[in-house]
Structure formats: structure tokens, C-alpha cells
Specification:
single chain, 412 residues, alpha/beta, four-stranded antiparallel sheet
């Protein structure tokens, strides 16, 4: 079969099943899977039922309840579909079904999967329930070409919003899967080869309480915390001088997103906690970043008598760096995306962090690609009226199927 014939066969199958694919996505959106609270096993069962109707055999891997609780979740079931065609590479396709809570400001039911002007609206429709459908139908289209080598696996997991520790990382560390390459959920006009890392620190500032009429008898934790904040913001001002060499990444960032403390209005506060988010560009070393922040915080508090500071790491997500082993996959996806969407698509980076890092840390070359608009902002991701153009769902499915065909059927 020529390349033209294989592309035509892929298009034909996806055209035939376009309405069914949209119905599957709508059902996934209508099934809540907010994380937190993270009660996601029911959504996994809905997804598994759809996959089985499509003819796939689904491995259900429930995460033990104590492990879920330790990661701030109620329930999660990881799903694996394996399609073995013969000797050759194993390619994993990973998407996550957990989503952030809807929040306020929606113009429709966030679980309604309403369709307006060719767009489906709903929480998770773009990030990343869409790629449950993208990848499943891409595999069906691939199989219309009768592949004779390699293996494709679907990895459908449920804890990306809380770090991916019991999703992709668990699948890889327990030996349930050993892929040679991986594609993780992404955006239809972007082939992502790098992303930021993220460090969350909890900073507890402790002093001594006192009556507000005699503040001199206490040690004000809030006053010390304001000095720490000022030093952190001065530190942040210098980040703009450092820009990643990867297009789309930009500079490091720092946000103090949460402050708690105090006893009452008429009491000198004896304890204040800060939670900060430090985004790292791929060129940065996470340990060096953490050491620097700890030093800056410690120095800011050192001049304050009666003040003690404890810094605790809450989360570390390492940056995803461009990989030589993933270059061929990225180039193939970019070439096919450019052809299908009729616009130039180049490999680039994004200034957030994803589950792709778990594959990279396990030594698996990985690229992010999937259904979605040109950017997270276009998708209203993590905002009201999250949306996905159904033409992008159809197009991304074709791009993935073409790329899998190049790897498992024949040369491009």
C-alpha cells in the first residue's frame, strides 16, 4: 500500500466513525471526575466500557485505597489496552481522565457536553478526555492498514492533576508496561518536546504570640513573613534575565499562591504559612533551584529575633527536556500535523508540567501531541467554558494514526 493509499484509508475510517467518536467524548465529559476530590474509578469504568464496545480488551488496574488516600484521592483505576501486531517497538499513548473542578462563570452545564458552532463545551473536553477518543480511534484507523509489527498501548490514567504518581509513574515503576516510545496528551497545533518543571514549597514561619496591647512581648510571625515575601519577590525580578532556548517556554516564574496564619485580630500572630510555586525552565537543575530558595528564605528570617522558619518540599515535578530519542517521533508528528491541518507545525515547548515527565524519567523518549486548539488559552483550559473544536478532534486522530502507521506499517 502506498503512502497516499494508507492516508486515504485512515481518513475513510475516521470519516465513517466521526459521529461515534464525538458520542464517546460527550459521554466521557458527562461523567464527572474532578480531582480533588479524586473519586475517579467510576469514570474509568465508563471509559473501559466504551473501549470494550470498540473491540479493545481492557486491563483494569485499581490503585489500592490506602495509596489513593496517601495521594489525596478517593479512588483511581488505571486502564491499559495492548494491541500487539508483531515484533517491533512498543508505543504508549497516555491521556488522563481526572480534571480540575469546574469553578464559576460557565455559560452552560460544565458536564453537559453542549455543542455550539462546531465546538464541544465541558470540563475536561480539551484537557484531556478528548485524547481518550483521539488515541482510541487513531488505533482503529491504524488497524485498517493491517499493521504487522510492533505494539500500541493505551495508558489511561487518573491523577495528572495531583502529580501523576499513582498513574503513569505507578504503571512504569511496577513493570506493568515498558514502552519504547510514548505520546502524551497535548494540543492539536503543537508538538511539544519540552516543558517546565515545578517546585512547591511550604514555608512555616513561627514566632511567639502576645496581646496586641503589648506586641513587644511577642515575636510577630506575620511581620517576618512579609520580609520573606519581599525577598522572594526581589528574587523573582531577576528571573526575566534567564530565558529557555526552547521556543514556547520563556522564563522561570514564582508565585506565592497561599497564605494562612494568625489567631485573632488582637493577637500577635505566632505562626504563618506560605505556599509557593516555582516554575523551572528545562535548562535549570531542580536541586539547585530548591537550594537557592531555601537559602534566600533562611537569610531573610535570620535577622529576626525569636523567629524560626521551616521549609518543606510539597511537590517536585522535573522539567521535560528535548530528547534525541524522541526527535524522530516529534518530527513525524509535526510533518503529519502540518499536512493534515494545512499550517506549519514545529516542535516546541510549553510553560507548564505534565505526566510526560514520568515517561522521560523512566528512560522512555516522549512527545506531547493530541486534540486541542493552538494553545491552552484558546481551549479555556482550567477555566469556564472549556472547549474543543470537533474538527481538531478529527484532525488530531488522523495525525496520530498517520504517525503510528509510519512506525508500524511502513516508511513515510
Amino acid at each position: 500500500m502506498t503512502q497516499r493509499d494508507s492516508h486515504a484509508a485512515i481518513r475513510h475510517l475516521l470519516d465513517q466513525r466521526e459521529e461515534a467518536q464525538v458520542r464517546v467524548l460527550a459521554d466521557l465529559v458527562r461523567t464527572p471526575s474532578d480531582n480533588p476530590p479524586g473519586d475517579c474509578a467510576p469514570h474509568a469504568e465508563v471509559a473501559a466500557a466504551h473501549l470494550e464496545k470498540l473491540g479493545f480488551e481492557v486491563e483494569r488496574n485499581p490503585v489500592p485505597s490506602d495509596v489513593c488516600r496517601a495521594h489525596g484521592m478517593i479512588s483511581a483505576t488505571n486502564l491499559i489496552v495492548r494491541r500487539r501486531y508483531g515484533e517491533g517497538p512498543t508505543i504508549a499513548l497516555n491521556a488522563h481522565g481526572d480534571v480540575v473542578a469546574p469553578g464559576e462563570g460557565w455559560s452552560c452545564d460544565p458536564y453537559g457536553a453542549d455543542i455550539r458552532d462546531g465546538m464541544m463545551l465541558g470540563r475536561g473536553v480539551a484537557v484531556s478526555k478528548s485524547d481518550f477518543a483521539t488515541y482510541a480511534y487513531a488505533v482503529l484507523a491504524l488497524e485498517a492498514l493491517d499493521p504487522r509489527r510492533g505494539t500500541v498501548e493505551l495508558h489511561l490514567t487518573y491523577d495528572e492533576e495531583t502529580g501523576g504518581e499513582i498513574g503513569p509513574k505507578r504503571l512504569l515503576e511496577t513493570g506493568l508496561t515498558k514502552p519504547d516510545l510514548a505520546i502524551c496528551a497535548g494540543f492539536s497545533y503543537a508538538v511539544t518536546v519540552a516543558h517546565n518543571g515545578c517546585l512547591h514549597l511550604a514555608v512555616e514561619v513561627r514566632g511567639k504570640s502576645a496581646h496586641a496591647a503589648r506586641p513587644d512581648t511577642g515575636h510577630d510571625a506575620l511581620e517576618a513573613a512579609t520580609e520573606i515575601l519581599a525577598v522572594l519577590y526581589r528574587e523573582r525580578d531577576g528571573y526575566t534575565a534567564h530565558r529557555s532556548s526552547v521556543p514556547g517556554i520563556g522564563s522561570p516564574s514564582l508565585v506565592v499562591g497561599l497564605i494562612e496564619g494568625g489567631i485573632n485580630t488582637n493577637v500577635v500572630p505566632d505562626r504563618v504559612t506560605l505556599r509557593l510555586d516555582r516554575r523551572m525552565i528545562p535548562e535549570e537543575q531542580p536541586q539547585a533551584v530548591e537550594d537557592r530558595l531555601r537559602a534566600v528564605i533562611g537569610q531573610a528570617a535570620a535577622s529576626r529575633p525569636g523567629i524560626a522558619v521551616e521549609v518543606r518540599r510539597v511537590l517536585l515535578a522535573r522539567p521535560l527536556q528535548p530528547s534525541a530519542g524522541a526527535k524522530g517521533l516529534a518530527d513525524s508528528l509535526a510533518r503529519n500535523a502540518s499536512a493534515v491541518f494545512g499550517t506549519p507545525v514545529e516542535p516546541s515547548g510549553v510553560p507548564l508540567y505534565t505526566d510526560a515527565r514520568h515517561y522521560a524519567e523512566a528512560g522512555v523518549p516522549v512527545v506531547l501531541y493530541g486534540a486541542g486548539p493552538r494553545s491552552l488559552l484558546d481551549a479555556n483550559a482550567h477555566r469556564a467554558d472549556e472547549r474543543l473544536a470537533l474538527s481538531d478532534l478529527r484532525g488530531a486522530s488522523e495525525v496520530v494514526a498517520r504517525t503510528l502507521a509510519a512506525l508500524l506499517v511502513g516508511p513515510e
